[in-house]
Amino acid sequence: MPVDQEYIYSLLRKYKDRTATEAEKEELVSWYRQRAERDSVFPEDEHVVAESMRVRLHHEITRPQHDRRRQWLAAASILLIIGVSVGLYLRPTAGVDPGDITPGSHQAMLVLVDGTKISLTEAANGNIASQENIQITKSGDGQLIYTLAPNRQGTATASGYNTIETPKGGQYQVVLPDGSKIWLNAYSSLRLPLNFSEGAERRVELKGEAYFEVSHQPTRPFTVVSGQHAVQVLGTHFNVKAYADEPDIKTSLLEGKVRVTAGTHSVTLAPGQQSRLAEGNITVAEIDTREAVAWKEGYFMFDDERLEDIMRSVARWYDVEVVFDNDALKEETFGAVTTRFTRISTLLEIMEQTGDVQFRVEGKTIHISSKQPV
């Protein structure tokens, strides 16, 4: 029996608005599972496997070409809202080798104030360094924890900075002595002061991208510095993207309030807003914050973004080089939602299906060209 496209989309809209009844949710899941079973791709879990369902939605529901990508992205966003665990049941297209390139993982290097380098990838769990009044511990889940040493609470003897660096294909989380948490994205570095005792300035320096959950301390502002760009907060959740190869610096606010300063320019952000520093000017726009922090949640999430911008993020995470056979392809726009923890072929397949480009993987290089007419 042919699927009623409008009815399926009505169910998706209800999912997105959180108004779907349990019966309607079950109906949508049943619709998906029937098609998955037909192709012998049948998840065992009662909850729909997010990426498999996303691909099925994209293939099964046909809409006019001009709005197909946006509707597909909306459907994928719904699955993110539901919070379904990610599993992949995808069949790569002929142009993409499924055995090509694996995703990034928890990798980082800790550079101590004296220049000593400690590979957090290779170091055993437990205490890995002690400095003045600071103990540094590696946990078993990609997390580095700074704590004030016992009986040294409130002392301010430590000085200098440590640096945590993630390579391409790496990410790491840091917990500071004040309880603040920082997630560091691929190819980024974070410079941290050793002195986090009471009265000391809470100031870190970022190159690359990081998500911050800052502990609220009214008398001690927390400042994130990226070159001439600074974000000052008291306690809030926000994301800063400040890669050297990007044309701008973006600060996205999820909770609380932050003040963004660059030179003589300054703006205050409210939740749901993003500042953009480009060519010395700061602009502010309303955004879907899920896109800004999707990387931290384990997803790629792009909404009508330029292909060149998308591939910068892809290259950092998979540690690959990207070559455009035609510079005009850099301006192509795409929507894509997929897990970051799968081979690169999954993302490339999605983009091939939704656009007019094709990808060729040669070693650690991705070649992008125009799709050949059938």
TrEMBL record:
Annotated Protein FecR C-terminal domain residues: 299-368
Domain of life: Bacteria
Keywords: Membrane, Transmembrane, Transmembrane helix
Pfam families named in the record: FecR (PF04773), FecR_C (PF16344)
Entry keyword Ribonucleoprotein: no
Chain ranges of the FecR protein domain: 163-259
Transmembrane annotation, as ranges: 72-90
GO molecular function (one): sigma factor antagonist activity
Record bears the keyword Iron-sulfur: no
Name of the protein described by the UniProt record: DUF4974 domain-containing protein
Organism (species): Dawidia cretensis
